[in-house]
Amino acid sequence: MNHFFNYNNPFLNNNGFGFNPNGGYNYPPFSPQNPHNMPPQPTQIATYTNTNKIYVSGIDEVKSRILPPDSDMIFIDNERDILYEKVVDSTGKFQIKMLDIVEHKDLEKSDKASDDKLSEYATKSDLEPFNALKTQYNDRLVEQENTIKALRDELKTMSEKVEAVTNIQAKMLENKGA
To answer: Which of 77, 70, 75, 71 has the alpha carbon at shortest distance from 85?
Structure first.
């Protein structure tokens, strides 16, 4: 019966049951006798780039990600231009900040734009002629207010004189009629 149990049988594996639960046959790994005679293997080029970005599909997924205490992690949303920053404190409680991702086309253009905006504002030397005109108009306004006050005083004096003359005329008429 010893001839029945064949160790070279591809259907038998080390557990003796004749099938491999992981699929396929359970052959021993191939190892060449002389590795120096083998042709060099081409290096495998990665079809992906290594990145430190973690893509998520919403804030719920960010909340469900478990981070160690005293750590923080950045997550990027797949559907929207949103960046999530999750910060975990020493007790395990976390806070999440949602930030918008905005692309800046050209840093130099944005600096020039801020310089251009500054050039839109007037300087003190630009305002000096306007300040001189303002002072001139304020002086004229004070002069006109003084004139108006003087005219009011004169009108009051004239009204008092008219009233006095009217009183004199009224007494003269009374004396004539008596």
So the answer is: 75
pLDDT, tens only, 108-124: 665 666 666 777 888 88
Q: pTM score > 0.70 for this model?
A: no
- List, for residues 64-88, the tens digit of each pLDDT value: 988 888 888 999 999 999 999 999 9
Q: In what order do the strands lie in the sheet with 71-77?
A: 54-56, 71-77, 82-88, 94-100
Average pLDDT over residues 17-34: 53
- Is residue 26 very low, low, confident or very high in pLDDT (cuts 50, 70, 90)? low
Tokens of 54: 């973690």
